[in-house]
Structures are given as structure tokens and as C-alpha cells.
Amino acid sequence: RGPDPSVELVRARMSGVRSKLFVLSGKGGVGKSTFSNLLARSLASRFPDKNVALLDIDICGPSQPRMMGALNEQYVEENLALMSIGFLLGSSDDAVIWRGPRKNNMIRQFLSEVDWGDSLDFMVLDTPPGTSDEHLSAASYLVSKTPGEDDGARAILVTSPSEVAIADVRREATFCKRVGLKVVGVVENMAAFVCPHCKVTSEIFPRDRGGGEKLSEEMELPFLGSVPLDPVLARACDEGQDVLSTMADSPTLAAISAIVDRE
Ligand code: ADP
């Protein structure tokens, strides 16, 4: 069987995108969409002359339109574009019953037919929890099958400090290995709490049990940082505000900056 022409077409279109960052998590509710949002916004603000796309392929639960405060529009900022299945669904219940081939079709269209502007430098992919059709599809288009070729595709694994969430991240890492997706590292979310009154960050879980950090060590993956549970962040996301300006100087943004620095 020769190469699938539709896959080749999408690959060619996406080949100029320097970084394709898959944000993955084993469980839902650990903050994957929140982190994708922060990451995309931070990249756009750190690299004003580069173009960033946030692609929301969480087909059964697209949350970026609300988080970005962009319920119907594709461009959020000058150099930040958002595309979400949420823009296309009449009702959020519509996509829940989609089967694999239909999801695959949708993802192919997102990658090949959306007008992402002249040149796209970064693409952040907000994915559904676990490893399902959406992940396999996106990986089939964005991860090169040629060993050693730099396709720019990489994964960031988001976890919360609980044991169950961490067990799921192991499965994510196995998935990445299987499809040939390089893992940048692990981000831990909600291990600490930022007090909205005094702004002090308090640890919630004992450090010696060390959730995300311990997991990273065990799996020999870089630990990228810990994003605290921050009521200001929760509210900014809920109301679709620009989290970067709402949260200037917060420890939460410092954690994200350290990750963006690697790009
Ligand atoms: P996922 O994409 O993994 O399902 P979300 O990003 O939608 O998770 O987060 C679930 C909920 O938790 C959202 O309401 C979000 O605003 C909130 N949340 C996530 N991370 C944080 C954080 N660090 N601080 C405060 N609230 C957070």
C-alpha cells in the first residue's frame, strides 16, 4: 500500500510549522485545556513576530471558545488564532456520538483546510483526555514516520498530583512512544494553592510523595514545572479573559514562562 495521499497533503501543509505541541493528559479535569490556553497565549506574547495557533480537537468537550472568550471567531489576538470544533457544532451534544472516521475527517480538515494565515510557527493542540481516535488521527498527520526526521511534533503531559491521574499519564507516555511522538516533559497542575488574599502559595500534597516530579523521574522525563491551583486563573478561564494580563506577576505565570523559555 502506498502512502495515503490525504495524509501526505496534510503533512506537506503542516511541514512549515516549527512546533506542534500536543497537550495530553490521562484524565479529564486535570487542567489540560487551561494549560493549552496559557501556553498558546504565552507563546503569542513571548514571540510577537511569530504566529501561534490553538487547535481544540477535544471533540466531545471543546472548551477553548469559552476559555479564549471567542465563541465564534477564529482570531483572538493579532498573532494568535483559535480553531475549535466548538465553532462548528450547533449544540455541544452533537459530536458526542461521532465515530472514528468522522473525527478523523474533521481533524484532517482542521489541519489542511483552515486558513491559518501566511506562516504558522507554533501549533498547540488541546486534545481529549486519554488516547483515542483524535490523538491517533492528529499523530498520523503530524508525526513523521521517517526515523530521525524532525517533524516538530512534541507532547507535553499534564497531570494532577493524585495517584490515579499519574497512572494515566504513564499510559500517555506509552502512547507517545508507540506513535513516535517525542515527549517534552511533564507539567503538574493543582499541587499547590495560591491564596487570593495574601498571594502566598501553599503546598496541598506532601512534597515527599511528590506527584508529578516523582513521576517524571521514574519515567526519565523532564519535569517542566508545577502550576498552582489559582482562583484567579479559574475565573479568568471561566470568563474568557486574557489570563496573561489578568494574572501578571503571578507564580502561575512564572511556571508557564519557564516552559515557554524552552521553545
Ligand atoms: P481538562 O482540560 O484537563 O479537562 P480544564 O483545563 O478544563 O481540564 O480544567 C478543569 C477546571 O479546572 C476548569 O474549570 C479550570 O478553570 C479549572 N482549573 C484548571 N487548572 C487550574 C488551576 N491551575 N487553577 C485554578 N483552576 C484551574
Rg, nearest Å: 18 Å
Main sheet: strands, sense, barrel: 9 strands, mixed
| Helix and strand composition category | alpha/beta
Fourth CATH level, the homologous superfamily: P-loop containing nucleotide triphosphate hydrolases
Kindly report the average pLDDT value.
86
Name of the CATH class: Alpha Beta
Outline the low-pLDDT stretches: none
Order of helices and strands: HEHEHEEHEHEHEEHEHHH
**Molecules bound to protein:** adenosine-5'-diphosphate
**Oligomeric status:** single chain
Distance between the termini: 37 Å
Number of domains: 1
Helix content: 25-40%
| CATH fold field value | Rossmann fold
Percentage of residues in strands: 15-25%
CATH architecture: 3-Layer(aba) Sandwich
Number of strands: 9
Q: What is the molecular shape? A: globular
Q: Total number of helical segments?
A: 10
Subcellular location: Cytoplasm
Protein name: Cytosolic Fe-S cluster assembly factor NUBP1 homolog
GO molecular function: 4 iron, 4 sulfur cluster binding; ATP binding; ATP-dependent FeS chaperone activity; metal ion binding
GO biological process, one term: iron-sulfur cluster assembly
Write a structural description.
The chain is of the alpha/beta class. It has a single domain (5-261), classed as 3-Layer(aba) Sandwich (Rossmann fold). The protein contains 10 helices and 9 strands. Strands 1, 2, 3, 4, 5, 6, 7, 8 and 9 form a 9-stranded mixed β-sheet that branches. A hairpin with a 6-residue loop joins strand 7 and strand 8. Helix 6 runs parallel beside helix 7. The model has no long low-confidence stretch (mean pLDDT 86). Bound molecules: adenosine-5'-diphosphate. Residues 25, 28-34, 63, 189-190, 227, 229-230, 233-234, 237-238 line the site of adenosine-5'-diphosphate.
